[in-house]
Amino acid sequence: MAENPSPHSSIDNSAFDVIVIGSGIGGLVSATQLAAKGAKVLVLESYLIPGGSAGYFDSHGYRFDVGASMIFGFGSQGSTNLLTRALEAVNVSLETIPDPVQIHYHLPNGLDLKVDRIYEKFLENLTAYFPDEKRGIRCFYDKCWQVFNCLNSMELLSLEEPRYLLRMFFQHPLACLGLVKYLPQNVGDVVKRYIKDPLLLKFIDMECYCWSVVPAAMTPMINAGMVFSDRHYGGVNYPKGGVGQIAQKLVEGLEKVGGKIEYQARVSRILRDKGRAVGVKLADGRVYYGKRIVSNATRWDTFEKLLPPEEMPIAEKKWQQRYQKSPSFLSLHMGVKANVLPEGTECHHILLEEWEKMAEPEGTIFVSIPTLLDPDLAPGGYHIIHSFTPHWIHDWQGLSPREYENKKEEAARGIIERLEKIFPGLDGGLNYLEVGTPKTHRRFLGRVDGTYGPIPRYKLRGLLGMPFNRTGIPGLYCVGDSTFPGQGLNAVAFSGFACAHRIAVDLGL
Ligand SMILES: Cc1cc2nc3c(=O)[nH]c(=O)nc-3n(C[C@H](O)[C@H](O)[C@H](O)COP(=O)(O)OP(=O)(O)OC[C@H]3O[C@@H](n4cnc5c(N)ncnc54)[C@H](O)[C@@H]3O)c2cc1C
């Protein structure tokens, strides 16, 4: 293990306080928070740019978000606006554009409704379809507000830090008790107390599925409280210049406060000394040592690839028994003529024709059209449409190059045909098309099997089974979507704040 750093390295290897593997939003929030507290931080990113699933690519005059486009956490008040706070902590900021509608749903049974930014307007839209459930609808969504208000009343830091927990309990006893109550609950348990209409319950399933990729019965109430309320509180806001700007700005802030980042720096091993994580080895042979190591790679990548799988800590084995990898996506990045979009088109859409197919590959189609908010992401007269739908990597393996290309073409044709229902003339208006498969997601996002993230294998007790940042390996922490509270940019930002807080206490910063 006593390997030396490359003599060509421009980085002084003597004493990093913290080495962060990966520059996803979770990794960058953790890194910036620690650097702002004076820690000597090094971020190692295998790709050319930061951001991971919140990255971007440029092609033919278009700027595409590779993944996330519906962004929470950019509000200006409360404590749940974690992206705003993360940027502020390192003296950078981003212009954002408010999205008036979170999602326009196009669902079976003629359910065609918009989730308006204004809460009462949303309730009105939904109640118009289910007048008999007027009371139940309000009661359920008001419960979500209760969760949100608890979260939004306190500073969100590490739940693994007893002194912080104690302080929060004394400052906000009712909010803490509220959270303790909802922590082990899933949406399905709560919603059935208020709503009986089977079609409305299917709608609530979709409300959960479209960000948790599991139905209401398996979606933790804490996460639902955040999403179903913050969309009306801080709102959904799109960063000017594209989602990739968030990571770019965090890196700018990181460097301002003395942190460092290296690109094309793929970590191949976490190094241990007497069982403790003490450094990392890169694929090119370089070695860096740090007092604390943070992995922003998925837990599967961390404990099966960066560490010997046969030495996996028991807690990780147990976690894998509770959680599995969600499918990846088939993504269509399109450039289209502006006249393809009917007047009044919203930025985000969900399309599903048969309820039974909601969670199947190619069942639900997700659509984002960020140029409706920021036209500068495409040449004049054109829009970008990012459309994606769940797909498993195993369906794309073992194919010859020709079979692979044919399969991509056929799948893309099917998606475009279905989207014609919302955007008549889409096929004819196509100016650019790039199709990404689960293999593309695995390669460019650095995520095992291209997975969107962990999902419960069976109905769990809310978020209770999701691990925090410390791991079974001393000195090693995880951050990002395979830690509490899960997927989504604001969620991984939460994980980043919590991880940095725990490490800062451990290092005495
Ligand atoms: C298609 C799609 C659409 C989505 N839509 C939304 C949305 O609208 N709103 C929303 O909030 N969320 C959305 N998400 C989810 C959100 O993007 C993710 O939950 C979040 O970005 C994950 O962040 P993370 O910190 O866990 O790290 P990741 O984004 O997974 O980043 C990890 C980084 O670590 C690097 N890395 C991995 N291994 C190594 C290694 N060995 N050495 C060096 N570097 C390494 C990777 O290259 C990557 O840059 C979407 C995701 C996808 C894929």
What do you see in this structure?
- Residues 1-10 have low confidence and may be disordered.
- The protein starts with 15 loop residues before the first strand and ends with a helix.
- The chain has 509 residues and is of the alpha/beta class.
- The strands form 5 sheets. Strands 1, 2, 9, 10, 11, 12 and 20 form a 7-stranded mixed β-sheet that branches. The chain has a 7-stranded mixed β-sheet with strand order 7-6-15-16-17-14-18.
- The chain is globular, with a radius of gyration of 22 Å.
- The protein has 3 domains: 16-49 and 82-94 and 239-323 and 458-507, FAD/NAD(P)-binding domain; 120-234, no CATH class; 327-449, no CATH class.
- It has helices spanning 25-36, 82-89, 119-129, 134-151, 162-171, 173-182, 187-191, 198-212, 221-230, 244-256, 299-304, 314-322, 401-419, 426-429, 438-445, 489-507, and strands at 16-21, 41-44, 56-59, 62-65, 96-98, 101-106, 112-116, 237-239, 260-262, 267-273, 276-282, 287-295, 323-325, 328-337, 348-351, 365-368, 382-391, 430-436, 454-456, 476-478.
- The chain is built from 16 helices and 20 strands.
- Helix 1 (25-36) packs parallel to helix 10, helix 1 packs parallel to helix 16 (489-507) and helix 2 packs parallel to helix 10 (244-256).
- The structure holds flavin-adenine dinucleotide (FAD).
